[in-house]
Each structure stands twice: as structure tokens, then as C-alpha cells.
Amino acid sequence: MYRQKGLLLLYSCFNMRRQLNRFISGGNLSQGEYLVLRNIRLSNKESKGDDREGTLKAADLSDMLELSRPSITRILNTLENRGYITRSIDPKDRRSIRMELTDAGNEAFDLANRRIADTAERIAESLGEDDTDKLTELLDKLAEVYKKMFEEKEGEKGERS
Q1: This prediction's pTM
Q2: Alpha-carbon distance 99 to 60, whole Å?
Q3: What is the DSSP letter of 1?
Q4: Is the residue at 59 inside a domain?
Q5: CATH code for the domain of 6
Q6: What is the pLDDT of residues 52-90, one digit of tens each?
Q7: What one-character DSSP code corresponds to residue 144?
Q8: Which member of 16, 37, 103, 126 lies 3.0 to 4.6 Å from 109 by CB, making a disulfide possible if both were Cys?
Q9: Is residue 39 part of a domain?
Q10: How far is CA 85 from the centre of its chain?
């Protein structure tokens, strides 16, 4: 019985994620593209006035977003081809790439942020305060279950090595 319920829960999670990603992106940005733009913008804001302004390594993005390096490279190439970012070698550290959002990149990011905020507000309004609180609590609990399962699996890998 738990196996069947568990599968239904996972299918519901997959469906929810697919629908949410489709709605939020609106065909403009994928979730990965949005997160890369967000981290580039944050990196640029945090380093204003710093001699490493706008510098970010693809490897750092890979670690932050828990995406493979080839995935990050693919996303960066797409964003650059679409005119959302510019990349240049950092003259102070040739291993680092200076990435900046273009005006088009800032507009795409701001549009996605507005869609996310509007979506969140509409969901909370539709569910009502009590159900929103319950769902938030359950999703946090589910995330902890996933985290624990992942840690157990990583522990098993370490034991086999």
C-alpha cells in the first residue's frame, strides 16, 4: 500500500514541478537559465566596488546550483547567444570569467521574477492561509525526507569505496 501511495506522491510532485516550471518560464527562461541569471546578478551586486566585480566561475555556478559543468556551459552558451549575458576573461585571474547581464538579460530576469511573485500570490490566495501553511509544512517535511535519503545513499557509496 505504501509503495502505491509513494508512487502517486512522486508522480504528483513531478507533475507539479512540470506545470510550475512551464507556467513560470512562460517560454522565456528555463528554470536553469533563471537560476544562472539570478546568481550572476547577485554576484554582480555583492561585488560592486570590489576588484573582482562581476567575476564568477562556471564551476562555482555548477556547485551552487548542483548542476553538472556541461549543463552550466550549455546554459551559459544559450544565454549568451540570446543576448542575455556577456562573458569575458577576467584580466586579474585568467581562470575566471566576468559575466554580466545585458539590458535584455535584466528584462528577462525581472519578467520571470514578476511571474514567480504573481504565481506565488495566486497559489496562496487559491489555497487559503491554512492550506498554504499545511502544504508548506508538508513540502518542507518532504524535502527533509529527500535530504535524509540522499545522505544515506551517499553514506552507502562511501562504505563501498
Answers
A1: 0.75
A2: 12
A3: -
A4: yes
A5: 1.10.10.10
A6: 455 678 888 999 999 999 999 999 999 999 999 999 887
A7: H
A8: 37
A9: yes
A10: 17
Asked whether residue 43 is domain-assigned, the answer is yes
- What pLDDT shows up at residue 27? 61
In a domain, 135, yes or no: no
C-alpha cell at 110: 525581472
State how beta strands 85-90 and 93-101 pair: antiparallel
Q: Nearest to residue 83, comparing CAs of 37, 46, 39?
A: 37
Which one, of 23, 119, 31, lies nearest residue 78 by Cα?
A: 31
Q: Looking at the 3D structure of the chain, how many domains does it have?
A: 1
Extended beta strands in 41-92, E state: 55-56, 85-90
Give pLDDT tens digits for 1-46. 778 998 998 899 889 888 877 776 666 888 889 999 999 999 877 6
Q: Which helix (H) or strand (E) holds 154?
A: helix 129-160
- Model confidence pLDDT, tens digit, residues 109-131: 998 888 888 888 999 999 999 99
